[in-house]
Amino acid sequence: MGQIYSYTVHKQISDRDIDNLICTALEGGINYWCDSAEPEGADYKGCQYAHEVLTKGGALILKSFENTTHVLTLNKVMYALGKPEVDDLLDINDYDAVEVDQVIQHALFGGPIYG
Question: How many domains does the chain have?
Answer without folding.
Answer: 1
